[in-house]
UniProtKB/TrEMBL annotation:
Protein name: Glycosyltransferase family 2 protein
Domain of life: Bacteria
InterPro entries: Glyco_trans_2-like (IPR001173), Glycosyltransferase_2 (IPR050256), Nucleotide-diphossugar_trans (IPR029044)
Family to which this protein belongs: Belongs to the glycosyltransferase 2 family.
Domain Glycosyltransferase 2-like: 9-164
Pfam family membership, one: Glycos_transf_2
SUPFAM superfamilies: Nucleotide-diphospho-sugar transferases
């Protein structure tokens, strides 16, 4: 149930023409009350054309910026079009739309909800250095957010209107910025973070880029990203949208208002 809220599903997509029709079709069948936006992240195939033919709104980046750059554009689209909820969903079929109502329900007690793979739902497994990095991130970020988190690198996320306003103005585009740094930034500004258990599926197209060497590189880079996220100064104007601000109170207790109206 969306309880009258306007919900936008954002799908960052890079060369996903083969799988998008099935992914968009599944969302449309299961969730007829949501809108979708495919952010074509500089694809060289027919991603934009296929998404538009499937009935989705499309925003196209001229160059490949990565998930962070694509999601920053997606949040700006959600903010400019007045959506109450934005949900990030992978374009490769790994995220099951069945769990979106679960995220929406949990959003009633949080500003940002993470769909967690390692919380008792499904049998998704990660081993070796990549798993060590995920556990380290979850341990540290659980302390920062003051809640139990088991999957801080999940890209299956839902956020409310104040969080959309926040991310439309500040969203890291660097490596792991869309997951780790965005989560640290939200927590440091006082937003409430929670997780909901989800089962993750195998991707329907493309190949995973995992290997032992890449897993070790991931471990090192994840630690550096976390360190930078902790020491980087947050832009002071973001407090205008954080919990306790007049805008936050207006957006969460009554009809949505623009920041200029409060």
């Amino acid at each position: 149930m969306n309880d009258g809220r306007r919900v936008l599903i954002i799908l960052p997509a890079w060369n996903e023409a083969d799988g998008l029709p099935a992914v968009l079709g599944e969302i449309k069948r299961q969730l007829p009350y949501v809108d979708t936006l495919v952010v074509d992240d500089g694809s060289t195939d027919r991603t934009s054309e296929v998404a538009a033919a499937a009935g989705s709104a499309v925003a196209r980046l001229p160059f490949n910026l990565g998930v962070g750059g694509a999601m920053r554009l997606g949040y700006r689209y959600a903010q400019q079009h007045g959506y109450d909820v934005a949900i990030q969903v992978d374009a490769d079929g790994q995220h099951d739309p069945f769990y979106i109502p679960v995220l929406l329900e949990r959003l009633g007690e949080a500003d940002l909800v993470i769909g967690a793979r390692f919380d008792g739902e499904g049998d998704y497994r990660v081993r070796g250095p990549r798993r060590w990095a995920m556990r380290l991130l979850s341990l540290v970020l659980s302390r920062i957010t003051r809640t139990r988190l088991t999957d801080t690198t999940s890209g299956f996320r839902a956020c409310n209107r104040p969080m959309i306003e926040f991310f439309a103005r500040w969203y890291p585009v660097e490596y792991l910025g869309d997951t780790v740094e965005s989560l640290v930034g939200a927590a440091r500004c006082g937003f409430t973070v929670r997780q909901a258990p989800v089962a993750m599926r195998a991707r329907t197209t493309g190949r995973p880029s995992a290997s032992p060497v890449k897993a070790m590189v991931y471990l090192v880079r994840a630690g550096l990203v976390l360190l930078l996220a902790m020491i980087r100064r947050m832009p002071p104007h973001l407090k205008d949208f954080a919990p306790g601000s007049p805008y936050y109170l207006s957006a969460t207790t009554g009809p949505a208002a623009s920041p200029a109206e409060v």
